[in-house]
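Per reviewer request, we include the raw input and output of the structure prediction for the construct analysed in the revised manuscript.
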Amino acid sequence: MIYGYVRVSTREQNEARQMRAMHQIKVPEENIYMDKQSGKDFQRPRYNQMVKRLKEDDVIYVKSIDRLGRNYEEILEQWRYLTKEKKVDIVVLDMELLDTRRGKDLMGTFLSDVVLQVLSFVAENERKNIRERQKEGIEAAKMRGVQFGRPKRNLPDNFEQVCCRWKNGEIPGKEAARLCGMPISTFYGRAREMEVLC
């Protein structure tokens, strides 16, 4: 039986290129499993459904190693689990050397392992670079004055008065939040942010 595994990191990304590759090698539609989430680990529902169905001598196709995952240790662990324990073959379409159906002799296995380790390392490194670029982008945007998260609502006119009553112990926080018409966590957060002179 042959299976295809397709993964994109977000719902906005397009899986068409990977799906085209699966159709070209004639993977039956019902045997193509797709996840739309990060490759940082293997806690992916469709991937795990596929793994449960696998039987000895089945073949899994993936377009490239980073579609399988982006965590170096976990890719190696999954690869060994699938090939050694489940006894299935894996074919990485973008890398001919990563086809466990070929070269099952010692040299073939050695070459496959070396290539897998290098590519897994590159995939994880790329994930780290993506995170670093995101962080730098967010910092640059903040320096330009871009606000992240929901915009803060204006405080009600009675906020300072109610806040003073709460700080002086006249009313409990729950009552203060109710009088201001806001959730208690929001009231506490805004009260901490503001230096209200009572």
